[in-house]
Design goal:
alpha+beta; 3 helices
Length: about 120
């Protein structure tokens, strides 16, 4: 997903992320996104797709320089929706075409069944 974004490719949430009802959050220095019910009560990841589109327009670049598999776990207790295969990473990137590249840290969780992202946090670019 980061490689596609960094190469200016469109990132479709359905390709990389769990279905909306299973999604927990995306967090980066510019946004916090979680699923929100639409006016008709449907649950979508439209806000995440819009944010990814914005990152694409800003020419975000991020290269993983370290990745660690943390194994199965959860944040906030077993009743949360954060259960999954957790990982941490270090990246080198920039938040826009005009920003200076720098190192940042992040973490996330993958749904163990679908192998798609349910939590993704970038603490800094």
């Amino acid at each position: 997903m980061l490689a596609d974004l960094s190469h200016g490719k469109h990132v479709d949430v359905g390709t990389y992320f769990v279905p909306p009802i299973q999604f927990v959050r995306w967090l980066d220095p510019s946004a916090y996104v979680t699923f929100l019910p639409g006016a008709d009560g449907s649950v979508t990841l439209d806000a995440l797709q819009a944010h990814l589109n914005d990152l694409e327009r800003r020419h975000v670049r991020a290269t993983l320089i370290n990745f660690d598999d943390g194994g199965y776990g959860y944040v906030g207790g077993p009743a949360t929706n954060d259960q999954g295969g957790w990982f941490t990473f270090t990246l080198h990137g920039r938040a826009s075409a005009t920003a200076s590249p720098q190192d940042g840290l992040g973490k996330g969780a993958i749904d163990c069944t679908s192998k798609k992202i349910k939590v993704f946090v970038i603490d800094g670019w």
